[in-house]
Specification:
With about 180 residues, the chain is of the alpha+beta class. About 50% of the residues lie in helices and about 15% in strands. Strands 1-2 form a two-stranded antiparallel ribbon. The chain has a two-stranded antiparallel sheet with strand order 3-4. Strands 5-6 form a two-stranded antiparallel ribbon.
Length: about 180
């Protein structure tokens, strides 16, 4: 006859072999909860810790966004051998404005990474991060611009807006509402 024990968490009767040993209490002593409950509790605690850590990091990023953007710009400037003369105050003033200097779209500041997050853009990519050559734009615009000039992005946007929906999009009900199809 095998020995059994009732788990203090799930209240199921299980064989002693499904309970962990308590080394501090001697060879015959076993834990009050089974392996299954112990694993479930460990996973729940891990998920909670991860969620708390992510929330804490996001909140910290909000208070240090200007210094973070500036630190990254300085790093890119040093790597490229160009100057970076903008200040944290300069960056913070543009963040406080809350809108993209090129498109007028409001920044999304409550998420770490978003297509409408603020990004530092060099107007002329060959010149450094100077107050005259730098502006705060949405990440999506900066990504589209890359190492080109504004004219290329504007040309692309004009072409897209004049062309209308592509044939693949016409049958898609999600876009049909957008384009009035």
């Amino acid at each position: 006859m095998t020995d059994t024990k009732i788990c203090s968490w799930c209240l199921e009767e299980k064989p002693i072999s499904e309970f962990g040993r308590r080394p501090d209490r001697g060879l015959r002593s076993v834990r009050s909860h089974c392996y299954v409950c112990s694993r479930a509790q460990s996973r729940a605690a891990y998920r909670k810790d991860i969620a708390v850590s992510r929330a804490r990091n996001a909140a910290a990023w909000q208070t240090r966004r200007a210094s973070g953007l500036l630190r990254c710009a300085r790093h890119r400037a040093k790597k490229s051998g160009i100057s970076c003369t903008i200040t944290e105050l300069w960056v913070q003033q543009r963040l406080d404005a809350g809108v993209c200097e090129k498109t007028g779209i409001r920044f999304v500041l409550d998420k770490l990474r978003h297509q409408f997050s603020p990004s530092l853009d060099k107007i002329n990519p060959k010149i450094g991060y100077t107050p005259e050559n730098t502006r705060m734009v949405i990440f999506m615009f900066n990504r589209a611009k890359s190492n080109f000039t504004d004219d290329y992005v504007e040309y692309m946007a004009d072409s897209l807006s004049c062309r209308g929906p592509s044939p693949e999009v016409v049958g898609d009900s999600k876009w049909a509402a957008v384009y009035g199809l």
